[in-house]
Amino acid sequence: MAISYNGLWKILIDKGMKKGDLKRRTGISSGTIAKMTNGEAVTLTVLEKICNEFNCDIGDLVEIDTFKEKKVGEEKDGKR
Q1: How would you class 44 by CB atoms within 10 Å of its CB: exposed for 0-12, middle for 13-18, buried for 19 or more?
Q2: CA–CA distance from 47 to each of 24, 41, 72, 74 (Å)?
Q3: What is the phi/psi pair of residue 38, to 5°?
Q4: How far is CA 27 from CA 32, 37, 49, 52, 75, in A?
Q5: Cβ neighbour number for residue 75 with a 10 Å cutoff
């Protein structure tokens, strides 16, 4: 699955915050921050904590690129 947290990173930049600030303000772990940095899935509970902190919706934080996922699947099947 191709997950992008670019919306979250943009919010942090706009607020002059770093990932460590996000960790302290929301109580999420370093491992979870690492997962998001690597475009991996995190729980809805984590996303809810972030949304509550920034008073935003999940869609403001995360984007799932299904087109990339389809391309990767096609390459595995030998299609291009």
Answers
A1: exposed
A2: 15, 10, 26, 30
A3: -90, 5
A4: 10, 17, 8, 12, 39
A5: 10
The pTM is what?
0.79
* Cβ-proximal residues to 40 (8 Å cutoff; 6+ apart), any chain: 3
Would you give the end-to-end CA distance of the chain in angstroms?
18
As a whole number of angstroms, the distance between CA 8 and CA 5 comes to 5
- Tens digits of residue pLDDT in 9-42: 999 999 999 999 999 999 999 999 999 999 999 9
> Which amino acid belongs to residue 16?
G
Paired tokens of 6: 């670019």
